[in-house]
What does this fold into?
Amino acid sequence: MLFLVLALSLVNCNRLDRTRPSSSLEKCLAEFKRIPEVDAVLQSRDSGQDSVTDPEPFKGIEIALTLNGAILATANPDADADDVCYKQNNLENLQKLIDTLKQYNLPPTVDFVNARYVDTEVAGTWLAAGNQLGNLTYDNRRAVQLDAHDFISDASKADERLAVIWSQHPQPTRYFRYPALKTVKDENSRTAVEQYLAQAGYTTVPYTIESMDDRLADIYCRAQDAGDKSCSTMVKLNYYAVLMDTTLRAKSAARQLAGRDPSHILVLFMNQLTFDTLAQTIAWYQRLGARFISLDKALADPFYKMTSNDGDPMGITVVNTVRDEQLSLGK
It folds into this structure.
């Protein structure tokens, strides 16, 4: 399959070892089975389903790259003992991220952050490099978990902290993203939240392509800590297999909804896997026919003004459709 060959070349894996995997690799493979969508996609791949023969399966797709999450300037093993990836908190990773975006001449990239975890030094460096920040609320609590008043309070608290940073590094647009893309379902509450966001000057940003790198990051970090190169390589290989499946399904779902190929918004998450593969990921998308555009250009597509029957933005509908399709692969 084309995507398998491409993914293998990206992770410098010249061949697949057909011998019985080592005990450490068996443990690594078992980790993937604990992530339902990932396991379903990988089983489909291994069975030969959904093979891709087109050398440019993403041709014609325009994609805006966005990020979710924040890192700190320094790692604190005592405070972050429960976070297997705590070592990712360092300025070297931040600079690697910034340098990669510049290397590939990507438009200013928006990182959506939970203001509670914002490091002002990191934020200042990120913004000074020409990138932007978005509001992902203060505590990352989902809208469906709160009433309108509490959710607005959480978003407003984040706004207050970000406003201090923006006062030193002004940006033309204020962006907001619902945590986990979970919007308010009650119509009255939804109206109240949308009115607050409009009055605060926010543009709401969904995404259509969910990378799922956040679900693979812990496996990757454990492998890195253990010096297990076979497992870390396997994580990268499987990451691109899942990203291929997700992107193709998002392309199909969006085309079905819009009657054409609309602009897409990709989300990657701030973690060590992203820091170590971002250059490969950008080159991979470009090699397969995609073109990167600014977030503002993507949002200007009328597709992002459309809503589903239950009031959700079409971006959310695309993500939910892809998730449902992937989960159904395992049934």
Observations:
- Confidence is low (pLDDT under 50) at residues 1-18.
- The two ends are 23 Å apart (CA to CA).
- The longest strand covers residues 62-68.
- The CA atoms of residues 113 and 119 lie 10 Å apart.
